[in-house]
Design goal:
By secondary structure, the protein is of the alpha/beta class. Helix content is 32%, strand content 14%. The protein has two domains: 235 residues, 3-Layer(aba) Sandwich (Rossmann fold); 43 residues, no CATH class. β11 and β12 form a beta hairpin.
């Protein structure tokens, strides 16, 4: 199935969707370093990106009409900078907000479906009206904001159109949900809002995939000793937080889900870059980064839990998401390769640039495994619908 990937970044969403059966005819990203990473891996014939047609540039300058009715899926993570909900904001006038471009692409291409991802903060109460504004624009991409129209007036017009009985324009059935990547086998607590839409001439009977992993299952495995035995951890080094122990004590039977994947699960077979630097040459992007320290609000990710959310910021980010906290209380920064594992990128995928730049690419990425799972469910629905139409 053919797709277009917008705001591709380092390729996490695109790689996952490629593994789900979508093959991009165009991959668009404006950041030079991200494009260099993608091109470097394409030149190395990494299967996930070997055939990608990568365009480095501003999506606002690209005309998508040449792909009208030829594309199965449009996907991407449009940058959506927070802004004040007070005052006057013209529809599609904030240059930091790329959702209008995602919606324009849908309007021009008329794909069978789309998948867009964004930060959980978009669902906060302060942005509730804007969240609804995005959703209604995705449902009715032909209802375009006027040049001089305030975005709230455009929202009101969209609401009137949405509740009218007439549906002659391009229309999508859209669902949105906040997903935690840890619940899908990613060794990282990463909550994101995902929009999925199907064109209304497809009889899509679709829902988000069921969660497969859980915290309770991890706690069960740890309290029963199975987790520690798997990693050959002696009794005296089996450390659980007080909150984890209290929650585990309330478990009366083994949960059905698989256990959350931890940092240790993800990186256990990588050499410690601080203690064994001579062994890191066998792995891409696996170099020790000095300077990590713990302070309030920056305490690192415990080894035996999923990592905190990796962020594009590096030094001093709240929560220490890019830092490993060992059971003995010491800390160090994650290497780029370790961070790539936490984002479920393949080990053969190389990230261009210094540690800071590579970590920025990873902090902005979608976990490959979560993208694959969502993509497979969308691909299956498209195939089922297309087969049903052929039989009629």
């Amino acid at each position: 199935m053919k797709s277009i990937e917008l705001f591709a970044g380092a390729g996490g969403l695109g790689i996952g969707l490629h593994r789900a059966g979508f093959h991009p005819v165009k991959v668009i990203e404006w950041n030079r370093n991200c494009c260099m990473s993608l091109r470097a891996n394409r030149e190395r014939s990494i299967p996930d990106v070997a055939d990608w047609d990568i365009l480095e540039g501003d999506v606002r300058r690209f005309d998508f009409k040449i792909y009208e009715n030829q594309i199965d899926l449009i996907s991407g993570g449009p940058p959506c900078q927070p802004f004040s909900m007070g005052g006057k904001h013209r529809a599609q006038a904030d240059s930091r907000d790329m959702f209008p471009e995602a919606i324009r692409t849908v309007r021009e291409v008329r794909p069978k479906a789309f998948i867009f991802e964004n930060v959980k903060g978009l669902t906060r109460a302060a942005f509730r009206n804007y969240f609804e504004y995005i959703r209604l624009q995705l449902e009715h991409p032909d209802v375009v904001g006027f040049e001089s129209e305030d975005w709230s007036d455009h929202l009101a017009r969209l609401e009137r159109h949405h509740t009218s009985a007439v549906r002659a324009d391009l229309h999508y059935r859209v669902v949105a949900r906040v997903l935690n990547a840890a619940n899908f086998g990613v060794p990282q607590r990463r909550e994101r809002v995902v929009f999925v839409g199907f064109r209304d001439d497809f009889s899509a009977d679709w829902t988000f995939p069921e969660e497969t992993h859980s915290l309770d299952s991890l706690l069960w495995e740890q309290t029963k000793g199975n987790y520690w035995d798997k990693h050959r951890i002696p009794q005296k080094k089996r450390v659980m937080s007080r909150q984890a122990k209290e929650r585990a004590e309330n478990l009366r039977e083994q949960p059905k889900a698989l256990p959350w994947q931890t940092v240790r699960d993800a990186i256990h077979n990588l050499p410690d870059p601080e203690k064994h630097p001579e062994q890191t040459n066998f792995y891409l992007n696996h170099r020790y980064q000095p300077g990590a320290r713990s302070y309030p609000g920056h305490t690192g990710s415990p080894l035996d839990e999923p990592a905190k959310t990796l962020k594009a910021g590096v030094h001093g980010v709240p929560g220490g998401e890019n830092m490993l906290a060992r059971p003995d209380g010491t800390v160090r920064y994650f290497t780029v390769r370790e961070s790539a594992r936490l984002q479920t990128f393949p080990d053969e995928f190389h990230f261009y640039g210094a540690w800071t730049e590579a970590m920025r690419q990873l902090g902005n990425a979608v976990p490959v495994e979560m993208a694959r799972i969502i993509g497979e469910h969308v691909a299956y629905q498209l195939q089922v619908t297309q087969n049903a139409d052929v039989l009629q």
